[in-house]
């Protein structure tokens, strides 16, 4: 056989092979195409699932907030018509699985509590609250599962709750009084705990207001900037300047000639939360903490939001020094608020 | 050399530990160490650190300056105009029941123990003092 004929046969065989390969690919493509069309008989509504859950180790009732955020009003109305009512049947749709140190697992189901907001706001969101009896501990791991039946998706996240934080200052000690003075700062101090990275204190200033012989108790809150710090188990501190406290009084209490005021004492609330909450707060969209807006941070799979833990400490009745009462009475910032000095009659 | 000397002269007076001192002021540094009561060490707390001008004012309890004291802080610095001052350091025992007395603190819960000293503040200088509780 001549050598050029052998080459022609080889070329033909190769082209036949390519032909069959192309036919096979085309048929396979058609098959997949038809499968895809069958599934599209049910078109899921388009929304962003949003889940918020902050476990509180001090509380025996925990809550999960579930939202569906629609970008399009017609989509929202269509979804509301089809799915809204049957979401109340939450059996096994929202649950937390706790895993203790020995590895044994316990499941806690959440039940529908209330609809938080159904009004059509700018985001077209539907928000529902679910509650369950559960007292978490920092020794266990917790996995949250939220099932969205419309899209047949499960949102989930896993955390270890925060351990208790030890607050050093402020503290109630016999004879110790807090000094509000523009020349010195008051220093908050605390020991961090494992998993904790979000800390925020609030002073509540209690004072009396006397008008036409009638005395009323008043309360003014001064929330400090959150401290987002890691690593844990270290001593943290935050300075609160005397000027900041005086300016809070000036900016929140009206100047009235006919009114006399007297400082009583201060209360202090200290909120601390997990690393996830710190990242969430620091994500830019939510600089002020939790809000109804969708965050750009999430630690949930298949949803946006946050699953973390939060706890609170309270210190009641922090006495103020006599020097502080005098400072508030005569300092140019607060002088016009008519607070009495230490030796003045109220 | 002349240029360098001029630069040094023109710089404002700097105090200690980052504190910017006015020219006629000095620093009172109080090393507020808690006395050692072995059995009730956690119960002994700092209650007050206050400054006045005369012994008479101290006896009357009239102080022009109080520090925000803490159990976590031992050394306190107070900026004062130069002159003679008196300061008072106060501790208390916060344990319940008879724990304070049984542990060697001479009083019950919430009662105070005082230490005081006279100090001379010189401009641009740090005067260190250690209160001693009897």
Explain how this protein is built.
The complex is a heterodimer of chains A (346) and B (134). In chain A, strands 1, 2, 5, 6, 11, 12, 13, 15 and 16 form a nine-stranded mixed beta sheet that branches. Chain A has helices spanning 3-39, 73-83, 242-252, 275-281, 322-330, and strands at 48-55, 61-69, 94-99, 105-109, 111-117, 125-133, 141-148, 153-159, 166-169, 185-191, 196-211, 214-223, 227-228, 235-241, 259-274, 304-318. With 346 residues, chain A is α+β, with helices and mostly antiparallel strands. Helix content of chain A is 22%, strand content 39%. Chain B has helices at residues 2-10, 55-60, 99-102, and strands at 25-31, 44-52, 65-66, 75-81, 83-93, 112-121, 126-129. Chain B has a single domain, classed as Immunoglobulin-like. In chain B, 14% of the residues lie in helices and 37% in strands. Chain B has three helices and seven strands; from the N terminus they run αββαβββαββ. Chain B is elongated and about 50 Å long. The longest helix of chain B has 9 residues, at 2-10. The chains are: A alpha+beta (346), B mainly beta (134). The interface between A and B is medium-sized, with 20 and 23 residues.
Key words describing this protein structure:
heterodimer; A: 346 residues; alpha+beta; nine-stranded mixed beta sheet; 5 helices; elongated; disordered N terminus; B: 134 residues; mainly beta; Immunoglobulin-like; four-stranded antiparallel beta sheet; 3 helices; 7 strands
